[in-house]
Design brief:
- The chain contains 6 helices and 6 strands; from the N terminus they run ααβααββββαβα.
- Helix content is 38%, strand content 16%.
- The protein has one domain: Winged helix-like DNA-binding domain superfamily/Winged helix DNA-binding domain (Arc Repressor Mutant, subunit A, Orthogonal Bundle), CATH 1.10.10.10.
- β4 and β5 form a beta hairpin.
- The relative contact order is 0.17.
- α3 packs across α4.
Length: 152
């Protein structure tokens, strides 16, 4: 997978801060959990469980451990799950002072991912909520297209 590396503050989080987040929620810092956090820190874009597993050192854990760990880290708010419409959940590290809210532009041909900084104003969410009688409306939005390289 190609990457356009935006340097995001959550990517540069210190491992010690990540481990403290685990400790702060009374969670053990197992070898696989530490390795997963390190892999996510090193990647600018969301990874699937299988991509994370392929980066782990051989024999360090099995795929089921990755799935359980990702579920726990998501529940703790340390990672955010994304769905790019291909049936594989992807995960990205969430920074300490970051709500993890941003969008992606994904190439439907080569799976290149670009992070999109623009977002809808809160007033659109409030308007949609008011029209439909909902409260606490949020959104997830991903864009899909064909990247410049694949157009050549």
């Amino acid at each position: 997978m190609k990457t356009h590396a935006h340097a995001h503050s959550h990517k540069r989080q210190e491992m010690s801060a990540l481990k403290n987040q685990l400790r702060g929620q009374s969670r053990k810092i197992t070898g696989p959990r530490a390795a997963i956090l390190e892999i996510l820190r090193a990647h600018p874009h969301p990874l699937t469980n299988k991509e994370i597993f392929s980066e782990m050192s051989k024999g360090s854990c099995d795929l089921a451990t990755i799935y359980r760990s990702m579920h726990l880290l998501e529940k703790m708010g340390m990672v955010k799950r994304f769905d790019f419409g291909d049936g594989a959940a992807r995960f990205e590290l969430v920074g300490e002072n970051d709500d993890g809210h941003h969008h992606h532009l994904v190439c439907t041909n080569c799976s290149e991912v670009v992070e999109i900084e623009e977002c809808f104003p809160k007033k659109i969410e409030k308007s949609i909520a008011a029209k439909n009688g909902y409260k606490a409306v949020t959104h997830k939005l991903e864009f899909f297209g064909i990247c410049p390289d694949c157009q050549r």
